[in-house]
Write a structure and sequence with these properties.
By secondary structure, the protein is an alpha/beta fold. It contains 11 helices and 9 strands. The protein has a single domain, classed as Rossmann fold (3-Layer(aba) Sandwich), CATH 3.40.50. Strand 7, helix 9 and strand 8 (178-180) form a beta-alpha-beta unit.
Length: 235
């Protein structure tokens, strides 16, 4: 395909040359991200829920020069949001108006456990064989249960970009190709009034916040008590 014209890895290992477009698929674990942003910054949480077009543009345009070099654009061709309609119905329409497919994941147990995780995993696995051939899988969730998914995606030579808010398990962070720090996302994508292009200089000067993660093997034995307390919004 033309977008992969002679793509080669630079000596630094962090960029690609002659890489014109990056085709991406975006998956949002809404309950997880919204709940954790709400704890840190209620205004930013409302911006996340009611103005998804804003932070989607930020993701599309931000940090491309650092990750891939000049002359590259990211195209998010698929957008999917998974949310609990009983708790977050008010946010469905803003996501639909921002070209998201919204998958309703109501509670299935008395404890409020939803099916977000299995829906997201199944969609990612289906999209591995999609005719578009997505180069990047962008997952907005801090749920460590997705660690095996990240590893499987990398085995298929796909890059994974993750955003987690609050504590993120070391295994989850290590399994991702790239990780966006929450303070960077909240400040620039949700609170700043400037457009995404205006922050390019800021990105270059704070490149360490967009941390490349080397792929690693999964932990042999995950801590059993991690599953005792489900992530917020996915209980």
């Amino acid at each position: 395909m033309a977008r992969f014209s002679d793509a080669t890895r630079s000596p630094e290992g962090a960029r690609f040359t002659n890489f014109d477009e990056v085709y991406s698929a975006l998956y949002v674990d809404f309950d997880n991200i919204y709940t954790r942003i709400l704890e840190a910054d209620p205004d930013a949480a409302r911006a996340f829920g009611f103005s998804p077009y804003r932070w989607v543009r930020w993701i599309e345009n931000h940090a491309l020069r650092i990750l891939y070099g000049d002359g590259v654009r990211r195209r998010i061709l698929k957008r999917t949001c998974y949310l609990n309609p009983e708790r977050y119905r008010e946010f469905r329409n803003p996501f639909i108006r921002s070209a998201f497919q919204v998958v309703d994941c109501p509670p299935l147990t008395s404890r409020g456990k939803t099916s977000t995780d299995i829906h997201l995993v199944m969609d990612c696995m289906d999209d591995l064989s999609h005719s578009t051939h997505f180069d990047e899988f962008i997952i907005l969730s801090g749920d460590a249960d997705f660690t095996p998914l990240l590893i499987r995606l990398q085995e298929h030579a796909r890059r994974t970009l993750v955003l987690s808010v609050g504590y993120s398990s070391p295994a989850y962070a290590a399994a991702a190709s790239w990780r966006i720090r929450e303070d960077w996302f909240i400040q620039q994508a949700l609170r700043d009034d400037r457009g995404p292009e205006d922050g390019e200089e800021s990105v270059a000067s704070h490149a360490a916040r967009f941390v490349p993660q080397a792929p690693r093997a999964p932990l042999a034995d995950a801590d059993e008590d991690e599953d005792d307390d489900p992530c917020p919004g996915n209980e």
